[in-house]
User: Fold this.
Amino acid sequence: MPGSFDDALPDPGFWAGRRVLVTGHTGFKGAWLSLWLAALGAEVTGFASGVPTDPSLFALARVGDDVGHVEGDVRDTEHVAEAIAGARPEVVLHLAAQPMVRRSFRDPVATYATTVMGTVNVLDAVRRAPGDDLRVAIVVTSDKCYENRNWVWGYREHEPMGGHDPYSSSKGAAELITAAYRSSYFTADGTPAIASARAGNVIGGGDWGEDRLVPDLFRAALAGEPLRIRNPDAVRPWQHVLNPLSGYLRLAERAWE
Assistant:
């Protein structure tokens, strides 16, 4: 039925047996996405430079038991290309990035190298992938990619990219890169379909990242310490981690069409 709850969920028939490469599969969202894909019957290969936290959802949920793992850095152009060529994916879901706002102030070079050049490397590897197996690539960025106008309503997809800090501007740059690659290399018949997805703040089990409000709340409660709110005047959207992940998967299904 159009508009039903089932329309928001990925189609198991589409993903069963589908070869999928997920970058950043050891991270919070990447681990959840890899688990979901494996449960749908997909043949998942993950590409990441390591596990970002200890403890981690990746380790505790034993994601590596169901997902192939390729150790590598998205900043390494040839390693990314080799991983995609070796896995022969039909769908690429690119989640690898530098995910922390305050870390971007401490290390802007690594932030831009990972989020911006990592996106270049993945899309260029998609462009150079041998054969015609690869049909869809989804680049995941953030709703922080928009130029911040400090208004009270939500941003729309046609709003200009921007960012007043390294994290936000790196996300905006990743969107511009995705649009440029799509226009330059992926318009002809037979080339992969390229799309991007932008999500807001997510919550869910297994998040041990630094500077996350809800995990910080629980850490403070367990330690009997006051919770420090870093930006008490900020207004941000929140959603459970499975909401945007279902969107990424549905977007890939529609892009395939």
